[in-house]
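Table S2 (continued). Query chain:
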Amino acid sequence: MKQENKFKSEQQQEVAAQQQSTQNTAQEFRTVEELLRFDAAHTPTPPAVAERLQKSSAQIPKPPPPSWWQRLFK
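Corresponding output:
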């Protein structure tokens, strides 16, 4: 009898842990942008893509400094 009770309690704990893990993975997002940000934060960028992005962003020229009147009224 005691072994059966112990076995049942272990099964119940296991089932509870599985339910909790599935509840943690389900998530609702208010906007599409929020979903995309979450996905981007949790999805690693492949090394080949990261390298290509670094190369292409290095080729973008820096914007010119603001003129004197823009700095004055900023």
